[in-house]
Write a structure and sequence with these properties.
The complex is a heterohexamer, with three copies of chain A and three copies of chain B.
Chain A: E1 2-9, H1 13-23, E2 28-38, E3 41-43, E4 55-62, H2 64-81, E5 84-89, E6 91-92
Antiparallel strand pairs in A: 1-4, 1-5, 2-3, 2-4
Helix pairs in contact in A: 1-2
Chain B: H1 2-10, H2 13-26, H3 37-60, H4 64-89, H5 94-105, H6 109-121, H7 130-137, H8 140-152, H9 165-174, H10 176-194, H11 196-208, H12 210-235, H13 237-260, H14 265-276, H15 282-290, H16 296-326
Classes of the chains: A alpha+beta, B mainly alpha.
The complex binds adenosine monophosphate (AMP) (3 copies) and sodium ion (3 copies).
One sodium ion (NA) binds at residues 80, 104-107, 250, 274-275, 277-278 of chain E.
């Protein structure tokens, strides 16, 4: 089984979750109000009061086949708006 | 005389709390207002000025002066970004120029609120309908910014970056803050007409508490702006000069238009402040989505890291000086 | 005449802000009140109505009318869920029926608060002891719901799902919101008796600010309810019909009982609103824990997605119309 | 060494942490106010003002033997109330 | 007579809400005030007492009594930790003793605020300059704590643990809460001098709302303190005895000094409360950083889990009794 | 590619992020307001109103060479103030 970690601006959260649902993700977990730094610069809690918001961290545990579908759905969003995604191994408890 | 006004402005609680926030960052105090508390105060202030503006709009009605002033304000938010754009193009590419231009064509609600407090402190009258101008100036600059990108962008711009007008208009008009402001304006308007006792019962919340909440929010804004400033310094001297010269220039145009509209000194100052202030709320959100080529650190840092503090501390009294000079008193 | 009352209700700030929240969702504005701000307003409102209720309870004392009314209210929260249960069983299984029934036997504090504002707006008198009824109606329905499960559930229900009465009673009586409401009632009661200057000093916080905070909270409730509605639509037409017909039916019973109790029109309306409203706070939390077989989207979406908005907008004025019709005026 | 990720309703947080302590977890990290979607439907931030709350995400780094004990303690809670658990590999820095 | 004062103290809303929070934990209600709401109230209270103190300091000026009282307060925050240290050394090592001593030399702003409300309730006059004493007593005890570590710590203390005075002084003076309090004091002072209308407009926020916000915050403090208490119990009977005996002892010294300073009963009580209260804000943060050998559960649990509730409930009226006994009335 | 999870008191957040930047981390994600329990005792949300704050959870995805540099920079902070760090495998999406 696979674990997918996606981190991106929470303004794209709705479209990202739609992409996951469409790709057949069996579930996901969302952590909002996350900050950080990446290729596109730093995101800080200060700016949350503007409507730019902070980052969201989305975690999906799913099987490999589904991961491949998710990859396709998720990449265009990350490419257009920025954000990163990483995959690792996991198994159900 | 301007120094007098500046001093009078600086020694009020809102501006002093703004300094307190700024100095906290300079001295590296660990004071910070954790999210989402700034949002609470931001929403509160929008709700309250919207509601109060609506009440007064009900009183004043939609006479010719109201229509003219609000119309002129919208025009300003369409014209000013174009001027800004051509100035910015001297040094920056199309994308960054358009995004920054949109920010300066739009407005900053907190600057407006601080200007209102400044006027109240000097006992200078102003009208509630100016809040309608505030509400309606937020979005048009976004459209202009995108039209600038559309017509000036290199032919090679990727198709994937084609402007999706529907979602842009949506973003521009229905941004949470803009929506709350306009909605509260409506509610104030309706309440004043149909439910006078409701108006009275809202008063302790939207009226009495306002000044203190403004201070608290400006404390946070002081922290945020001071943290932004270093990013602006990195962006170079052109943008630094722009962030101070442009508001002054826009203010000057604003004064001339206010004179033509025969606005009283209070309304004139608010009109000028709308022209001179720059948005760090609705505009950055829209630009990030539609002009991803522009560096967000540019348009946010100029508007928030320098123009905002400049306006709060010096701009408002300086603009008042300009208004007093160019618009003959009559009240 | 009811349309008149509905209009008068709709054109007050709390209901208008509720609409503003609803419309934000419909238009897909990104306005949202981030957690935990809704909790702040929710706690504030509970603290304030509790405290004010306690003060007035001290004034009125525990006369026979107080005892009778509060007693009748508790009876309603025991009887109404049983009626609801049998109606729901027509279409739903035991678990879902019991959980929804418990929600409709219990109450919604915000609906109660909105009804109080409605009465104040019409200058109709009501008594503080009604808050005691509110506080004491929250929990009994939970117990009834669980008894219904116990006696009606199929024999095959897994042992692991046996009702652990201790933790249930705990959940029902000591739920944070119920506890805060009852505690504030006590504190108001004690303060009124022993520390009149304390009462006065609380007044700006618990009294003056209340109406504005209510508006802010209803803005959020508008958003939340509107987001819930689609889930209710998925649940089918039976539950939709139930979510409107049941409050009307419960209200009718409430009016009859209020008439028997010879309540004045203000207290009668509040009594009816307690009967007609449904809980989305203490009850869902308890049901999730003890009847995991029931779908939480059913009992939350009916109570929050339809019954709540219906009561806020139409229910309250309609119930007022019913009270006016069935209970002869005397005040 | 193993990493255990548990995601479940924060109303069960206290009993879950007790289960972890009893199982000998050397420590744990708790992220509250997490939302998501799973077999039992979606959990959203909206409902945090009701006392239903949101999800909690608990992370435990521990040795394999302890993991086996934790598994036993944790499963009944996830089975009764819902929630998911996943295991992956990790090593101390 | 003391029991009378205790009862009068206990039956005020702030103390009753404190109990409500404590009882919630005892009964295992799930009531909790989610972060960052407690921070909101904490910041609000600091801002408001700072601002009000500044106003009154402007009124009173810096006469000899002000200088003397504030000077004496600072002396107390330097001397008391040394006494505490030697008492604690009986049972504890240098690190824990120094950290706890620093906490007890410093102050608790909420205890101070509760004492002010107590005085207002009894109509006993006190002066705004006492807030200056509060603000200036927060940090010196930290320095003393670290000097104690420096001179008493075993030679073997690792070099990596060498005291970095710069970052410590920074931590001590520029801790967010201390900074906000002192900054608001300044702002109040400046506003009173230069902008009387600003003072008036702040009043609904900093003045009227204060009592209610205090109640809300004490509700949370009740929860937090009650959750801490079990940790103190684990720490053993010596620390439990210390957490009650030490405030009484410090209070006694405070009364004697207040008598020498010829303070009126109101100022005397506040002076005593400053001596008797212990810090759980600036001090723990600084100690964690500079004396990592000390157990944070010791210094936080004594100050917050026992001394704080003791002072809020019994300490304040008992100290008032002591003041009444030792300082002859004259007002 | 590696994933580094660091959990420690958020009072050290600034110095930790500096250590990561200095070590050449290509980016990082920060989750604040995290609580938990470890060798040094429990950290709870209650104490966030004091200036002691809660924990921060920092995640870094980076290549192995960078990880080694980060390790060096991060260890002294964890040793002095407490906190834990764990490494696992990951790959970009
Ligand atoms: N190497 C990384 N490790 C962990 N988080 C990252 C990394 N790179 C980017 N991020 C996160 O992803 C967010 C979006 O990245 P960006 O592509 O800069 O928009 C950043 O703000 C970080 O929170
Ligand atoms: N496949 C998954 N991947 C990530 N998170 C999940 C997954 N399934 C469930 N969750 C999380 O676990 C929570 C509880 O799941 P449930 O079993 O539906 O109660 C959900 O709200 C999600 O936050
Ligand atoms: N074994 C563990 N698994 C997960 N998180 C841990 C573990 N040990 C410590 N932590 C986290 O690291 C924080 C700091 O640990 P410490 O200060 O070393 O006690 C704790 O409060 C936990 O949030
Ligand atoms: Na402008
Ligand atoms: Na009901
Ligand atoms: Na002290």
């Amino acid at each position: 089984m696979k674990r997918l970690d996606l981190i991106f601006s929470d303004r794209e959260l709705d479209s990202m979750l739609k992409a996951l649902d469409d790709g057949g993700a069996p579930g996901y977990t969302v952590i909002k109000h996350v900050t950080g730094k990446g290729p596109q610069g730093a995101v800080s809690e200060d700016m949350e009061f503007t409507d730019l918001g902070a980052n969201a961290h989305v975690i999906v545990f799913c099987d490999e086949e589904i991961l491949n579908k998710l990859r396709e759905n998720v990449r265009p969003i990350l490419n257009y708006y920025g954000g990163v995604g990483f995959v690792s191994e996991a198994s159900p408890i | 005389m301007d120094t007098d006004l500046i001093l009078q402005n600086v020694l009020t609680p809102p501006v002093l709390f703004f300094f307190l926030g700024t100095i906290a960052v300079v001295l590296r105090s660990d004071l910070e207002i954790p999210a989402p508390l700034p949002k609470l105060f931001s929403f509160y202030l929008l709700l309250a000025i919207g509601f109060k503006g609506g009440l007064e709009l009900q009183d004043s009605g939609f006479g010719p002066q109201v229509i003219q002033t609000v119309g002129a304000a919208i025009c300003m938010s369409l014209i000013l970004p174009i001027i800004c754009f051509f100035i910015l193009r001297v040094k920056l590419d199309v994308f960054n120029s358009a995004a920054i231009a949109a920010a300066y064509g739009s407005i900053s609600a907190v600057t407006f609120i601080t200007a209102e407090s400044f006027l109240e402190n000097l006992n200078i009258h102003f009208d509630g309908f100016m809040v309608a101008a505030l509400a309606l100036m937020e979005s048009p600059a976004i459209i202009v910014g995108l039209l600038l990108v559309k017509f000036a962008a290199p032919e090679t711009r990727a198709n994937s970056k084609r402007i999706r007008w529907r979602s842009i208009l949506h973003e521009a008009m229905l941004n949470g803050s803009v929506y709350l402001l306009i909605g509260s304006l409506f509610i104030g308007f309706l309440t004043a007409a149909h439910n006078p006792s409701g108006v009275e019962k809202m008063q302790p919340f939207t009226g009495k508490l306002f000044y203190g909440a403004e201070c608290f929010f400006l404390l946070d804004m002081g922290i945020v702006a001071a943290k932004r400033m270093p990013k602006l310094l990195k962006a170079g001297s052109f943008l630094i000069a722009f962030a101070i010269a442009m508001p002054l220039f826009n203010a000057f145009i604003g004064v001339m238009v206010a004179k033509m509209l025969a606005l009283g000194p209070g309304n004139a100052l608010l009109f000028v402040v709308l022209c001179a202030s720059a948005s760090y709320i609705a505009v950055p959100a829209a630009m990030r989505m539609t002009v991803p080529e522009a560096k967000s650190s540019y348009y946010i840092s100029t508007a928030l890291g320098l123009t905002f503090p400049f306006n709060i501390v010096f701009g408002i009294p300086v603009y008042m000086g300009m208004v007093n000079k160019f618009i003959p008193m009559m009240s």
